[in-house]
Amino acid sequence: MPSYLRREDLQHLSLSKIGDYIIRGCAEQDLSEVILINWQTLPEHYSDSFYQNLLKEAPDSFLVAEYFGKVVGYIMCRIEYGFSTIKRFGMGKRGHIVSIGILDEHRKKGLGTEMIQIVMRALKEGGCGEIYLEVRISNKSAIDLYDRLEFKNTSVYDNYYKDGERAFMMSRRL
After folding, report:
1. Is residue 47 part of a domain?
2. Nearest to 113, CA basis, from 59, 65, 78, 67
């Protein structure tokens, strides 16, 4: 990175544009909107410090989708070291999509697909060999999206969510 550019400057640069939507790196001042989107779109919630820590740990894979200056979606990931979700007995660096949320009125516009593709490139450039996520087995639209992006169902977790619903773990190579 050139010395005249700072990380906080890059967070405001557009990584992608879809119509009137801009996808860019998340900045600390976006976190309150990200948290609100999480509360509005998903039943699972995290502490404020969890979001702050993920932003510090993996800023290249924490993105927001913006519509006329308002954050309407996000994706946050982390990088982990551990057993492969794909290769038997394999170990390595892998990306974990922790959460993705898009406000209802902004869904079905390609934002989720684009954000996932951007973080997959960033995680691959960061040395990750694979990426995985957990998804509610009832979340058909999300599962369809992950299928289109070539994620494969690699396991099932019983009682994964607080309400007792099961989750699929879905993974793919990067």
Report:
1. yes
2. 65
Q: Is residue 143 part of a domain?
A: no
Number of structural domains, the chain?
1
Instruction: Give the model's pLDDT for residue 134.
Output: 97
DSSP-based three-state secondary structure for 66? strand
Beta carbons within 8 Å of 16's beta carbon, 6+ residues apart: 22, 23, 114, 118
Least Cα distance to 63 among 54, 104, 148, 47 occurs for 54
CATH assignment at residue 69: 3.40.630.30
In a domain, 158, yes or no: no
> Residue 25 in contact with residue 63, Cβ under 8 Å?
yes
93 within domain boundaries: yes
Tens digit of each residue's pLDDT, the chain (174 residues): 343 434 444 455 578 999 999 999 999 999 999 999 999 999 888 999 999 999 999 898 999 999 999 999 999 999 998 877 777 777 889 999 999 999 999 999 999 999 999 999 999 998 999 999 999 999 999 999 999 999 999 999 999 999 999 999 999 999
